[in-house]
Design brief:
The protein is of the alpha+beta class. The protein has five domains: 60 residues, no CATH class; 99 residues, 2-Layer Sandwich (Phosphorylase Kinase, domain 1), CATH 3.30.200; 180 residues, Transferase(Phosphotransferase), domain 1 (Orthogonal Bundle); 198 residues, no CATH class; 141 residues, no CATH class. 63% of the residues lie in helices and 7% in strands. It is built from 30 helices and eight strands. The strands form two sheets. A five-stranded antiparallel β-sheet has the order 1-2-3-5-4, with helices on both faces. Strands 6-7-8 form a three-stranded antiparallel β-sheet. Helix 9 packs antiparallel against helix 12 and helix 22 packs across helix 23. The longest helix has 40 residues.
């Protein structure tokens, strides 16, 4: 790649390049090279730049003419019910499809269940119109199998790559969360520490893959998944992007979305691409995560490519001030045009992020939510107190001798009351969330106190804003205004106290208000910066105090009261963690309930069959677990023939139980699939009737076995 300075074109130069490029596009493909050479008139730099744009157009611009390949229908034109049924038949006995998660030009993604391992998985299916292309299919399978060989905590693992019955698909781990793109679009840019952790984790994943010769080629926010429970970043579609990059896709938006994160060398036909290309894309992704925008943007793909080739990226600090300097420097270095100017590897990028020391201690989401609520209450309570004081003063002075009910200020009191209830309830409800997660006041105290043990970039970013407020309060004219306001208040309250006869309660009330307001304004005048820092979270000034506060008696009693009526335990199981037979039974039962009443009557006792299969599968699963425990309890050091016979017997029995469990779960799966086909109008009642009969046979066989086992146990107990 040329040096950055050679790539930067002035406006006149760009107009010349664009004119030659556009005129070349109007000529037949075979004559373009000759035309460019003639138009360049010996200007080799101009010729190279136009050829680079033409190469990028060939690679990524053909979508403008044809969104699908060879006139085939797009993924969305294939009957979803038919594709669903075909895929379920191909996966029958191994994976049970639950629902479609999404679809695009390159894939259809389903949520499924691994029957044997009882875990959720995602199935990514190559649309039939692409699977029909033999060359594309082979390339896809080859790259997917290469990606399946990657095993890293920050890479979504691929469990199975397969071609069956004309379908091409792979099965990968299901990540319960959202993509980075969805997260930023939903909640805005990430905090510096969160973004630093994400970049470091993705850098580790890229370093691992690059060391094994695998380049992603499509690092972007939508290919980075954030696990809901841990916040861990996982890179998806490793290796698959290499295939997608050579094909057309479903529309302009999808191509533009990918080009926003494409490295300059990916747009050049003869450039060698290595792992540093992924680091450039990661730099663009980090820029987006921290600012909510990309460094280069255009709705025209050719213009977008030229910006990556020629325009220097804006410095990150020029877009979002206040970020840690070393973090910004690392991102800016990733965005260098020349690969040699970037980090040589993902390990070096991860080390640079670590050296920036912007990541604090990991805090559970429920604790973060509680801390946010507690922080808000710090300023909301004084505001509420002031509002109530003003309202009560107005009640007595503006409209004296009026009853409370029907008072003209009733709407104001109602609004303040609602606000008061919200302010009081939010910390309590978030504290209950902490308890539901199996955590407590000690975890909150440690999360707060840890902020002074590490250099947390989020705190620094917040302190930068507080410092600006402190400087404002330190100005002479602001201090003079606060002194005048304080003097007027003291004079007014003093006149009130000594000017008339008041009850002791009224004098005490006025004195408390006088002292509180005077102290607050005096603090703003005398130590404005300290007052501004008082309401911040996690600063060195108050982190130790807050940590002691929450771990002390007040914190313990607060969480004890907040947890009244709440069973405190570890994080409750979600539906995704329930046994497969329960999920299948629930889904099948819901589908049956949605059928017309006359059809439900005709089909008979389907719900009873479903319930029986669920119970049978649950019993078999318990027996399998007991056999696993028995095998684990057999002495591993005992090499006697007796032990060997026992192990063989237990393993044979376990294999038979697993076979019967597979049949029971498979029968439930067939019932659900036939109910789904019947509801979708692609199957008939006869298919469902056959599945019901098979389910009866499986259930009765399991029940007979269970009953026989009980009789044997009863005889043994009687002896």
């Amino acid at each position: 790649m040329p040096d950055t300075r050679e790539n930067v074109m002035d406006a006149a130069r760009w107009q010349q390049v664009k004119r030659v490029f556009q005129e070349a596009l109007e000529r037949p493909h075979e004559g373009r090279e000759r035309y460019v050479s003639e138009a360049a008139a010996g200007d080799s730099s101009l010729e190279r730049e136009v050829e680079a744009l033409l190469a990028a157009h060939e690679d990524a611009g053909a979508f403008l003419a044809s969104p699908t390949k060879g006139g085939a229908t797009a993924a969305g034109d294939t009957d979803p019910a038919e594709v669903f049924a075909r895929l379920q038949r191909a996966l029958a006995g191994r994976y049970s499809i639950e629902r479609e998660l999404g679809r695009g030009g390159m894939a259809i993604v389903y949520l499924a269940r691994d029957v044997a391992l009882d875990r959720p998985v995602a199935v990514k299916l190559l649309p039939p119109h692409l699977a029909g292309d033999a060359a594309y299919r082979e390339r896809f399978l080859r790259e997917a199998r290469t990606a399946a060989g990657l095993s890293h905590p920050n890479i979504v693992p691929i469990h199975l790559v397969e071609e069956r019955d004309g379908l091409v698909y792979f099965v990968m781990a299901f990540v319960d969360g959202e993509s980075l793109g969805d997260r930023v679009r939903r909640a805005g840019p990430l905090k510096p520490a969160d973004a630093a952790r994400l970049v470091q984790e993705v850098a580790w994943a890229l370093a691992y893959a690059h060391g094994r010769g695998v380049i992603h080629r499509d690092i972007k926010p939508d290919n980075i998944l954030l696990d809901k429970g841990s916040g861990r970043a996982l890179v998806a579609d490793f290796g698959i992007a290499r295939v997608a990059a050579t094909e057309t896709v479903s529309g302009v938006g999808e191509v533009i979305g990918t080009l926003r994160y494409m490295s300059p060398e990916q747009s050049t036909a003869d450039a060698a691409i290595d792992g540093r290309s992924d680091l450039y894309s990661l730099g663009v992704t980090a820029f987006f995560a921290l600012t909510g925008r990309v460094p280069f943007d255009s709705e025209n793909p050719v213009t977008l490519i030229s910006m990556h080739l020629a325009e220097p990226a804006p410095p990150l600090l020029s877009v979002r001030a206040g970020l840690p300097a070393k973090l910004a420097e690392a991102v800016d270095r990733c965005l260098a045009k020349d690969p040699a100017a970037r980090f040589a590897s993902g390990e070096l990028l991860a080390e640079a992020i670590a050296d920036a020391k912007v990541m604090g201690r990991a805090v559970a989401p429920s604790v973060r939510e509680f801390l946010a609520a507690a922080k808000a209450a710090v300023w909301q309570v004084p505001v509420l107190s002031a509002l109530w004081w003003v309202a009560l003063q107005a009640l007595g002075s503006l409209v004296p001798n009026r009853p409370m009910i029907g008072h003209p200020l009733d709407p104001v009191f109602a609004m303040i009351a609602v606000f008061t209830v919200a302010v009081v309830l939010r910390p309590i409800l978030t504290a209950r969330g902490v308890l539901r997660a199996g955590l407590g006041e000690q975890d909150v105290a440690e999360a707060v106190a840890s902020s002074h043990l590490v250099r947390d970039a989020n705190v620094e970013y917040e302190l930068a804003r507080i410092e600006r407020l402190g400087r404002l309060l330190s100005r002479s004219w602001v201090r003079a205004g606060l002194v005048a306001l304080t003097g007027a208040f003291v004079f007014g309250m003093g006149s009130y106290i000594v000017g008339e006869r008041h009850t002791l309660y009224e004098v005490a009330w006025a004195a408390v208000n006088l002292l509180a307001i005077t102290a607050f304004f005096s603090g703003l005048v005398i130590v404005p910066r300290k007052m501004a820092a008082l309401f911040t979270r996690g600063t060195k000034d108050n982190a130790a105090f807050l940590g002691t506060f929450w771990s002390g008696p007040v914190g313990r009693w607060f969480f004890r009261l907040a947890g009244l009526g709440l069973r405190r335990s570890s994080k409750g199981p979600s539906r995704v963690a329930e046994p497969t037979e329960v999920l299948l039974g629930r889904a099948a039962g819901a589908l049956f309930d949605r059928l017309p009443k006359d059809l439900r009557t005709r089909l008979g006792d389907v719900q009873q069959v479903i319930g029986g299969l669920e119970r049978a599968a649950a019993s078999l699963r318990e027996r399998r677990d007991a056999l696993n425990e028995a095998l684990a309890d057999v002495g591993a050091d005992d090499a006697s023939s007796r032990r060997g016979k026992l192990v063989i017997e237990l393993e044979t029995t376990r294999a038979e139980v697993e076979r019967r469990l597979g049949r029971a779960v498979g029968a439930l799966e067939n019932l659900r699939l036939d109910l789904l086909r019947l509801r979708a109008g692609v199957g008939g009642p006869d298919d469902l009737t056959r599945s019901i009969e098979e389910a009866h046979v499986v259930r009765e066989a399991v029940e007979r076995e269970i009953e026989a086992k009980r009789e044997v146990e009863a005889v043994i107990a009687a002896v």
